[in-house]
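Troubleshooting log. The previous structure file for this entry was overwritten by mistake, so regenerating from the original sequence record. Sequence copied from the archived sheet and checked twice against the printout by T.R.
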Amino acid sequence: MLPKRTLAVFALFVVSVFLQNRSALAQIGTRFPSERQVVSDPVTGVPLTFLTSKPVGDSKIYQTHHQWASDGEWVVFRSSRVRGQAMAVNERTGDIVQVTEGGYSGMLCLADHSMSLYFLRQPAAAAAPAEASAAAKTAKGEPVAPTGPAEIVRVDLAALFSDSASGHLKRADVYEKVCGSIPMTWGAGGDMALDCTEEFAYFRVGKEEAARHLAPGTKIESTFGPRNMGAGPTGLGKMNLKTGEVSFIVAVPFQIGHVQTNPWVPGEIVFCWETGGKSPQRTWTVRADGTGLRPLYPEAGYEWITHEAVVTKDEVAIAILAHRAPGVGVDKPDPWGPSGSGDHPTGLGIVNLRTREMRIIGQVPMGNPGRSVWHVNGSPDGRWACADDFLYRLWLIDRQTGEMMLLADLGHLTTAADHIHPTFSADSTKIEIQCALLSENKRSMNICIVPVPEDWLKRVRQEKP
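Regenerated output below.
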């Protein structure tokens, strides 16, 4: 028998190992202590509410999608607290709750009219939850082939939060329900969006299935730009979330990315030609029945259009970049072509989906070190727009007056693991971002809420003539 002292040391070791690996074992509904803190922006003085503050690999949902659950209290985000799982944080209390257990792939989709979270789960990722939030890879760095059909999963957030608060958690399958499966041959990726009716989910379809739906003689696009992305074909599919029925929507001869929906108009989809940079024609829209496929904003060759986001019932915000020197790609060849320079009109553009008109409503001031707007968004009430710049700072625009202000400097940490990707709340009073201001290594990001200034909110809204 081991001496008591040895047993005690061994017991402490076991407890230590358990605590260190608790996050890897945590089940859906596991709660984590609040990290909430409010700090003033170092330049503008605006109060920044950090809902997370530890260096554990937090990142927000992409700016094209909802960030808050339908109750407006919980913000859902990605995190490495439990690798491969999603988290939610209560904006008021700071409580953090794990909201998936079997992993997820790609986009997290929050419903407007129910406390529901939807996402796509690929079997290869589900078998290895530590890699579920990204493309799973083998030891040699090669992608892991799916082991079965991809599934669309719904999480009942209301029941989960209630049971988590009471401490009476149940099995994961009580909260997670599989809506249906997508055939392996469709090559469904994690780029997914939820229809505002919550009746359908739309997802990207791979080359093999998309090729079957292209019209004969269609020219297949090759890669574009130095990142060797953009080649087609790809397509869009949809699933009836009540019956699980899967159907094909449309095929295009290029690589689809940034699939999103109109939160007010059923069956309206916006997506992009994804190249990792400048595209020949970036923005596109289509109806869920496959009709109405067209460029959203028909761009010129010298325009670098990026980071489109549906912002109101009839409008999409786009960024027209001015991050490169005038004349780039003219005097000597450039892999992206003669685009993204300030010798043509640039800025945050608002495109009307109905009239097809576009207006530029703001741009980083000429000569400012931020250079250009980059990722853009707008408030659902149509009053405000926002953008980050190439210094990872946050700008706010009054769409009525045209006034533009630097809302938050955020330490201008271009060393951060990602851009700040601003997104407005449903009530149009605040903006969620991700940033590395609190990070000691100036890289790891946290979830942060930035308010629209009170004096701006009090401005009288003028009715359109």
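Confidence is low (pLDDT under 50) at residues 4-24, 125-142. Archived copy saved in two places this time.
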